[in-house]
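Subject: for your reference before the review

Hello V.,

The reviewers asked for a structural picture of the protein, and I figured it would be easier to keep everything in one thread rather than splitting it across files. Below is the amino acid sequence we used in the manuscript, unchanged from the supplementary table.
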Amino acid sequence: MRKLSTLLLLLGMSAFVFGQTYVSEDFNSNQMPPTGWSIDDQAAQWSVEGSANAGGVAPEAKFHYTNGNATSRLISPAVDLSGLSSVSFTFSHFLDDYSGSGYSLGVATTSGASGTWTDVWTVNPTGDIGPETLSFEIDNADVGQADFQFCIYFSGNMYNLDDWYIDDIILYNPLDLDGVLISITTPTYVSGTAEVTGVAKNFGNNQITSLDIDWEVDGMVHSTFIDGLSLDFGDTYDFTCTDLFDFPIGSYDLMVTIAQVNGTEDDDPDNNSLTKEVNVVSHTVDKKAALEEFTSSTCAPCAAFHVSFVPWCDTHADEMTLVKYQMNWPGSGDPYYTEEGGVRRNYYGVTWVPWLVGDGEFCNTNTASAQAVLDAAAATPGLMSLVCSHSLDGTVMTITTTILPYANFNGFKVTIDVFEYLTTENTGTNGETSFEHVMMKMVPGPNGTSVDLVDRVPYTITETVDLAGTNVEEWDDLGVAVIVQNTSSKFVFQSGYSLEDMAYATEGRLSAIYVDGEAIANFDPDVMDYDVDLPSGTVEMPAITAELMDANGIKVIVPANGFPGTATIDSYGQDLATHYTYNVNLSVLTGIGNETFEAVEVYPNPTNGKLYLKGADNTNIKVYSAIGNEVASYEGFTGNIIDLSNLGNGIYFIHTVLEDKTVVNKKINLYR
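And here is what came back from the structure prediction:
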């Protein structure tokens, strides 16, 4: 039985340029060996995989286990390093160890067609390594030669590892001052506010003692100064910016930049910036974990695993979605193997059984690791809801699935598995006599249904499949599992079971809407638009709540961003497909209309302290906190800037009384 640790997939560096670059290989050509490279021995064990296990960006190189002892080298093109006494080298890797002994990994150099390799880095693994990025200087006798080459090599018993993943190989001559932005680690999907975080690295000769880091969205720049650093060449620093990412629901391009290093622009600004899409979600629900096991009735370790795993699954049946794919190996194979299961196997890169996948990632085959998947799912907000129903007419099954997303999701797929809860006729050689949740058919096929989901827009899939000719033993013992995952990363965002012959309720209307606890008068569930005038001087955004006519439905409340503004309430029936949108148009009784409201401009918003006002000459201004406390006031204000930098981060309301006694209110976000 083999294993692979669950990986944290990071947005990594790719194809950076560091000073004078001699070799840069990120395997994006999907060619092994890459152009100009060569492989010495065991070429069949090297491949390019669509994964990011080394901590970079897919694809990456992989060296895969096999039987036998050998030294296998992935060898670079020859480069001219004439006149140099040293050169720098960096690469990212992850080792999935098997035995913890019996082999070594390394980087070595050669020149002059001597056939002699000189180690510059080597390790004898005793367990998994990484993912990590290594950077070091090479200053041996091969440097300075016109035909310098390096290799990344494996040496020893090839059965004693599972896989070695390698990415972002760079040979270069470093600059004096070179800070590089390696990654933005702010989550792709956030609910409410989030910290802007990332990883910076020193790729220069000089020590980095301070960083100025800017982040911006839609042109609004937020700056953070970090000092007290002592980053030598190759050191990394995980930073957190002082201003919070706080924006209304939607998708944003977050750009993060190392603006200065040690108080000045560094020698290579081209590698200082990255951009990442960040989505502010509209709603969250509970997330249900998906466990997929690849197994076989001819696999002795599978039987040993199931002694503990099957009772554990029975205990936690309501906390997860479980599917098992019977494989046609080892031995003569399980007779309930299907080609569709083989496609799913290839999708996950399964190379042995039992192999457990938890929410799209490899999971060690023990109940503690499986429990960790359930615990992680319970702690992760669910970003979509789903319901599914199915009916069986003879051997023909009709399946209807509806997904309600709470953000935009592109490049996803929905996998629908018809399974049998208990089988007994695929008994093999491992001593097991019964098997649970055995996949019988994948609908519409093993690759699922490709989908692009739009925030708060229901997506329904209806499929009809004839199960004649499958391995079904008992036609009244069938279930359906639904898994929604990112096609590329494989991470599962939501999963669930179908209910047989379930007629989900379609009542999705509201029975009442409340503004600060007071019901909107004359509410009609069939009327979608309401105007609400708030008392003069209102500066705090009212709380909008609502009640559903059917408590089994779902409501998503999106608050207004200011006055005047519109709060929306999307309500859905239990079927998730029935959808209504109610609008609550908020305004403040000031005696003025939108023209006057728009005449007073307050910017930038969000602000880091300095706030510019236009159209507010000779006015009285009061600033209120989010809970309505007055925190600043300006009588007879005639300038164009007020300074709020002494206030804490958060939401504030600017209450402006014009010369004609009319009132204008503006909401601002203050973050530094």
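For the response letter, the relevant points are probably these. The two ends are 52 Å apart (CA to CA). Residues 1-17, 591-597 have pLDDT under 50 and may be disordered.

Happy to draft the paragraph if you're swamped.

O.
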